[in-house]
Amino acid sequence: MRGQLELTPVMDEAYVARGLGSWRNLIGYMAEQHAAERLGAERLSTDGRAGYCPDLTKDGVKYEVKAVGKSREVIVYSMRLEKDRTYAETHPLVYVLVIHSAVVPATAQEIRTRISRAQVWCIPFCYVDAVCSRMRPRILNRNYKPTNGWCQRGYERGGYLIPASELTCWGQPIPIL
What we know:
Layout: H1 13-16, H2 20-39, E1 42-43, E2 56-58, E3 61-68, E4 73-77, H3 78-88, E5 93-99, H4 108-116, E6 119-124, H5 125-133, E7 159-163, H6 165-168, E8 172-173
Helix pairs in contact: 2-4
């Protein structure tokens, strides 16, 4: 399996010690895992060679998981939005916001604990699309440099920073079981 991050439970201190990108990957990984558990959904591996790779699936519905940290902003890259629009023309698509309190630097266990307490919101994609349609895309990372491995071209085109509050009003929280 080739992907951004293999679906493995082995995320230890050596992994997070590699730096900010590793923390970001770890938080995203754990957010997907948390959302899958809360929704009873199956995780999908992310294959950078595939044309479209949502994070979760359940009963024919695909889910795109977004970890929302202390900024309380949802990051949607322009290239992701374009793929989501195309997919959603013929298939159901839901964004899942995992609103967490994880901060870095932290240990893997500290991040895991904070993610396990995260709020989970399901937002139909049409609302995400409507909010983005009212905004102008902007450069999100001026220092973006494609690296070897999973990074695809397109991130340099920027995207959208959406306050989570603009989306949660259209969604539904998933209760903690």
